[in-house]
Write a structure and sequence with these properties.
Radius of gyration: 15 Å
Shape: globular
Helix content: 55-70%
Number of domains: 1
Structural class: mainly alpha
Length: 142
């Protein structure tokens, strides 16, 4: 990602937290999905989302970095989950989103409206449905 263009924190931290799992580094030795799971983030997310008390988290993450200030534990866990879901289930769209944000002009403010528009144009515009699909995927992880 660009060091001079404003980037969504969830995107940078979500990618970074995916690399905390041992299976990401040595794909030849770790071929199972379970090897690529960041157990710490998974456990935290499961605790935080039990009972459905996290609705709207995807839109909050994508639209601004506020969740990292107000609830960093949820923000990091959800960033990992969204990034992991996109990498595993929508890799082309995830790569397109990474490329789009990396190509942003230097030192230009990244508004909520533009962040949401970029995400929706690459990943899809139904954020509530995407969140349901992501949480279902997370719930089914071993």
């Amino acid at each position: 990602h660009s060091r001079t263009a404003q980037q969504p924190v969830w995107l940078a931290e979500g990618l970074a937290t995916m690399f905390e799992a041992p299976g990401v580094y040595r794909g030849d030795a770790h071929r199972q999905l379970s090897d690529r799971i960041n157990r710490q983030r998974l456990d935290r997310l499961r605790k935080r989302t039990s009972g459905g008390n996290s609705r709207g988290t995807v839109e909050r993450l994508v639209g601004s970095d506020e969740l990292f200030r107000s609830d960093p534990d949820l923000a990091y866990a959800a960033s990992w989950a969204l990034s992991f879901y996109l990498a595993e289930r929508m890799p082309r769209q995830y790569c397109d989103l990474l490329a789009k944000t990396a190509a942003r002009p230097s030192l230009k403010t990244y508004s909520r409206a533009q962040r949401l528009a970029d995400f929706k144009s690459t990943v899809g515009d139904n954020l509530p449905m995407l969140e349901v699909q992501m949480l279902r995927f997370i719930d089914e992880l071993p």
